[in-house]
Design goal:
Elements lengths: L16 H25 L4 H27 L20 H24 L4 H25 L13
Helix pairs in contact: 1-2, 1-3, 3-4
């Protein structure tokens, strides 16, 4: 699980608009990941279902922290969409696992963008923590669905 104190913004901190936009994109990716895991759980069982529930919780924690951070910065957090388009229909455990890989990969790309678009030490550390934990989640799902390599050379890079 993620550290619940992961994103901390000292009172009076100013983060530029580019970093706020990247953080909003990370929030959008976290919303999509939560939605994706909620769908995937319906098609999984056993340890895969348990893993998906844990990963969903991790994304919910991140989502909540980003919303709190954006609010502290005076930026209204982007809302979740009512639904998201999946890259392929989710009809069984294999396609549910593939959806988890996509959700994690998209979140990794968003967090990498946050790290690249800020010089704020706390926000960069938060992005690095999210990249580290997301890379592990993605690797587990890539192994489940048999997508090599389990860990790409540059996680979060398209």
């Amino acid at each position: 699980m993620n550290n619940p104190q992961m994103i901390t913004v000292p009172t009076g901190t100013r983060i530029d608009e580019t970093a706020i936009a990247a953080l909003q994109n990370a929030l959008a990716a976290e919303h999509a990941a939560v939605w994706s895991y909620t769908l995937a759980v319906a098609f999984l069982s056993g340890s895969d279902e348990e893993r998906a529930r844990d990963d969903d919780d991790a994304h919910r924690d991140l989502r909540n922290l980003i919303e709190q951070t954006l609010s502290q910065l005076g930026a209204p957090p982007v809302s979740a969409q009512p639904a998201y388009r999946t890259p392929q229909p989710v009809t069984d455990s294999a396609s549910a696992g593939a959806l988890a890989v996509v959700a994690e990969s998209d979140a990794l790309a968003a967090w990498r963008s946050v790290m690249e678009r800020t010089d704020d030490r706390g926000l960069r550390q938060a992005a690095m923590n999210a990249l580290n934990s997301g890379t592990l989640r993605c690797a587990r799902w890539r192994a489940v669905v048999g997508t090599p390599p389990a860990i790409p050379v540059f996680p979060g890079r398209p």
